[in-house]
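WARN retry 2 of 3 for item q-0093 after timeout on previous attempt; input resubmitted unchanged.
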Amino acid sequence: MFEQIQEGNATVNVPAEKKISKDLPVFYNPIMKLNRDVSVDLLKTVKKDLQVGLPLAGTGVRAARFLTELKNIKLIAINDLSSDAVDLIRKNLNLNKNKIKCKDVTISNEDANKFLLNSKGFDYIDIDPFGSPNNFLENSIRRLAREGILAVTATDTGAMSGTFPKACVRKYWAKPLRNELMHEIGIRILIRKVQLMGVQNDRALIPILSYSKDHYFRIFFRCEKGKEKADNIIKQHSYLLYCPKCLNRELSKFNSGECSCGKEYDFAGPLYNGDLQDKKVLKKVKNEFVQSLYKENETPFFYDIHAFAKSMKLATVGKTIEILEKVRKKDKKATLTHFRENSIKTKLSVNEFKKILKNK
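OK item q-0093 returned
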């Protein structure tokens, strides 16, 4: 059973099943609409004509939106392993044929990696699987043009956020932590994994837009080629040392140490410790959610007010916005963060932040 919906400028038929499962021959996830919105709005800022590869196209809703909302698509290659999905993609593109200007549109029914290896390369590749993107990273990176954009979605956030630490070590080559920082830790672990797949091919994959939302992580990387650039990316990998007693944290080349309070540090990583956003890129993206990321402080990690209150045994600490105003008297660039409610990104030290919570 199918139902017809409107998303963006595209009209598409999607399965009527409301429960999303990898066992379905093809599925449509309405929660991922923001994911697609951001993709469209980001690509609108790219001035060159784009050759686009969609190895995991599903219902074709992303392809239909690209073709009906973007004027800079030179070529688009759409693929899915499911023959049911390919049939649906053809029908959905036909529904929108009067809105589609691009003449170079191909649809194939192949394994995603075979599709990538058989291609000549793309300026934009979108990896949006059910679960981990791992199986598709190497060949996507190999087929990404210089200054191209690789978009990666991961929905297996439980591993990278510490619910399944063994799976994280096995799949992402890093140790997670299950605490208030888990989503930012997780996205930085994922970034490092993608970057490691890039540097072995002398490619530096630089995050230009990154966020955690609902059940997924989403990162857009710009590809820069060259051994020196790849070497510089590795320099931005480190461990996060975290004190479960006083909540102190620091970035380190080592995965052990003792906190100044006397407690042994726990750790996460290795992970990426650089900027999650390219502010010059985000400034151009006309999307409300992206603009909230543009305003967010880039300091790695944040202070969760409730976690500190519990650690410090404070009965009350005041409203988040009031605490933020106090923090901004010492750090004008302090902001809230999309990673967690009631949390503040600031360059203030843990002790300085604690003094503010104590009203001192």
